[in-house]
Amino acid sequence: MSDPLSQHTDYGQLPLNDADVLDDPLEQFRLWLANATDSHVSEPNAMVLSTVDAEGSPSSRTVLLRAIDTAGFEFFTNYSSIKGRELLANPAAALVFPWYAIHRQVLVQGTARPVAAALSDQYFATRPRGSQIAAHASEQSQPIASRALLEQRVTEIEEEFEGSDVPRPDDWGGFVIEPHTIEFWQGRSSRLHDRVRFVRAASGGWERMRLQP
Ligand SMILES: Cc1cc2nc3c(=O)[nH]c(=O)nc-3n(C[C@H](O)[C@H](O)[C@H](O)COP(=O)(O)O)c2cc1C
Q1: Domain Pyridoxine 5'-phosphate oxidase dimerisation C-terminal, which positions (predicted)?
Q2: What's the pLDDT tens digit per position in 83-103?
Q3: How remote is the CA of residue 49 from the centroid of ligand 1, in Å?
Q4: How do residues 14-44 score in pLDDT, each as one tens digit?
Q5: What is the 3-state secondary structure (H, E, C) of 57-118?
Q6: CA 42 → CA 50, 106, 141, distances in Å?
Q7: What are the structural domains of the chain?
Q8: Angstrom distance (rounded) from CA 79 to CA 98
């Protein structure tokens, strides 16, 4: 078996030419997300979200992108979870879309804010009933004595809402990450990768630069 720690993948010749990058980085992101989807990247909307705690210590986890609009990148979670509490106290956030299979990554830095309650209600209503029940049963990121206890809570919640719609829990909803930096990384041969970075200008537009690999 080959040693995964000594692998050297050749990232190939697909370039990210300046002339081909769209002026609006959110539009460029949509294009790359479509490419990742067409290339059968597994869960192309999975993104690694980093937050920081009160001591400045960072932590990361995967969440799923559920919408992109002019404001930014939306995902849904429990507001009382570790990430939820950290973002409510300090909105600084970073995202990584790790599309290894196509030798690309997109990096985002930005500011998180909760979405309107009506939007969270709307999205919660589209979730499978099992996920809705789970959102009530799980106090995300809190310790629990056993799996059995969690499953018992699920049974109790199922009984509570039997025959009726499951309402959105008060502490469950969306965040939008409003980006101030978006970087597109395209792997190239001999580690001479292409990096095109957009930084939000004071005018509200985007400044664009090429970074050394
Ligand atoms: C592929 C994948 C997708 C995930 N999507 C979400 C998501 O959209 N929302 C969420 O709250 N957790 C999601 N999770 C679970 C989180 O990674 C994490 O375990 C959970 O949110 C608790 O994080 P926290 O304790 O840091 O707040 C996902 C995990 C994986 C592996």
Answers
A1: 172-213
A2: 999 999 999 999 999 999 999
A3: 9
A4: 899 999 999 999 999 999 999 999 999 999 9
A5: CEEEEEEECCEECCCCEEEEEECCCHHHHHHHHCCEEEEEEEEHHHCEEEEEEEEEEECCHH
A6: 21, 15, 25
A7: 10-127+171-211 (2.30.110.10)
A8: 25
